[in-house]
C-alpha cells in the first residue's frame, strides 16, 4: 500500500490511517513525530485525522456552531417576545381585575340601594294600605247568599244578622260583580267595628247555611269575613298557600291583621308584607 503523500510503499511500523477519509500514509509524511506516534494509545491512533479532514471538520463544526448560535439567538428572541407578551398580559389582567373590583363595588352599592328602595317602597305601600284598610274598618264580606232577582242586599244582611241574633245597623250593602254561579260576594258597611266583630264571631259559632235563611235556597254555608284591601287579600291568599304547605293549622284575620299558628300550643305570627312571608320559611318546625 502506497503513501498518499510520497506515493512510496508504507510498511506497518510507519503506517498511519486517517479515521475520517481512510487515507494511508507514512506518519512522518503527515509531520508526526516518531516518539509521539510510538507513545500514542491505540484508541487515539484509531481516531487520528489528517490535516485536510481536520480543516473540513473544523469548518463543519464552525457551521454547526453558527447554526446553534443562530438558533439560540432565535430562541432568545422568542423568549423575549413571550416575556413581553406576558408583561402586557399582566398589565391587561391587572386592569381587568381592577375594573372587575370596581364593578363589584358598584354592584354591591346598587344592591344595597335597591334593598333600601324596596324597604322604602314596602313602607310606603304599607302606609297606603293601612289608610285604605282604615276606610274598610266597618265593612264585611259575605259569601254564600244566592243571587236573587231584584234583591235588596241591605235586607238580606239584616235577615242574616237577625238569624244570628246580632243587632246591626246596616248603612250600605251591594253585591260585587262576579263570574261565580252563586252570584258573588255581598259587601256591607256596618255602623261600627263591634257589630262587625259580633257578626263574624256569630257565623263561626252557628255555621249558618243559606237554606236556614230561605227554604228555597241551597244548603251551602254562609261565610262572613273582614273586607280586606286588594293588597291584603293577595297577601292572605299567598299566606294560606305557603302556611298550609308548612303545616300551619290556623290562618285567619283579626282587625285586618293576617295571623297564623301551627297549632293551639304554638306562637301566633303576624304577616304584614312579602318580607314576613319570605321569613316564614325560616320559622323552626317546633314553633
From TrEMBL:
Pfam families: Baculo_FP_2nd. InterPro entries: FP_C, Znf_FYVE_PHD, Znf_RING/FYVE/PHD. It comes from Cinara cedri. This is Zinc finger, FYVE/PHD-type,Zinc finger, RING/FYVE/PHD-type. Keywords: Coiled coil. Residues 100-134 form a coiled coil. It comes from the Eukaryota. The keyword Cytoplasm does not apply. SUPFAM superfamilies: FYVE/PHD zinc finger. Residues 233-280 form the FP protein C-terminal domain.
Amino acid at each position: 500500500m502506497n503513501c498518499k503523500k510520497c506515493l512510496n510503499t508504507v510498511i506497518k511500523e510507519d503506517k498511519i490511517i486517517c479515521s475520517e477519509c481512510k487515507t494511508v500514509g507514512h506518519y512522518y509524511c503527515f509531520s508526526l513525530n516518531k516518539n509521539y506516534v510510538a507513545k500514542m494509545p491505540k484508541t487515539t491512533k484509531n481516531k487520528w485525522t489528517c490535516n485536510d479532514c481536520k480543516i473540513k471538520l473544523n469548518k463543519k463544526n464552525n457551521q454547526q456552531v453558527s447554526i446553534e448560535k443562530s438558533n439560540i439567538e432565535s430562541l432568545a428572541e422568542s423568549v423575549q417576545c413571550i416575556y413581553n407578551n406576558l408583561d402586557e398580559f399582566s398589565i391587561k389582567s391587572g386592569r381587568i381585575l381592577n375594573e372587575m373590583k370596581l364593578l363589584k363595588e358598584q354592584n354591591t352599592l346598587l344592591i344595597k340601594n335597591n334593598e333600601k328602595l324596596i324597604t322604602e317602597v314596602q313602607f310606603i305601600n304599607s302606609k297606603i294600605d293601612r289608610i285604605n284598610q282604615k276606610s274598610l274598618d266597618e265593612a264585611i264580606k259575605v259569601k254564600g247568599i244566592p243571587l236573587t232577582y231584584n234583591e235588596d242586599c241591605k235586607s238580606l244582611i239584616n235577615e242574616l244578622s237577625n238569624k244570628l241574633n246580632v243587632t246591626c245597623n246596616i248603612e250600605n250593602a251591594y253585591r260585587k260583580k262576579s263570574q261565580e254561579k252563586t252570584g258573588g260576594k255581598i259587601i256591607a258597611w256596618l255602623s261600627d267595628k263591634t257589630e262587625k266583630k259580633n257578626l263574624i264571631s256569630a257565623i263561626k259559632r252557628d255555621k249558618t247555611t243559606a237554606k236556614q235563611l230561605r227554604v228555597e235556597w241551597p244548603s251551602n254555608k254562609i261565610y262572613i269575613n273582614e273586607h280586606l284591601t286588594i293588597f291584603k287579600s293577595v297577601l292572605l291568599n299567598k299566606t294560606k298557600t305557603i302556611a298550609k304547605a308548612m303545616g300551619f293549622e290556623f290562618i285567619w284575620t283579626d282587625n285586618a291583621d293576617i295571623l297564623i299558628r301551627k297549632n293551639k300550643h304554638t306562637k301566633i305570627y303576624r304577616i304584614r308584607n312579602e318580607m314576613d312571608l319570605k321569613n316564614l320559611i325560616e320559622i323552626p318546625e317546633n314553633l
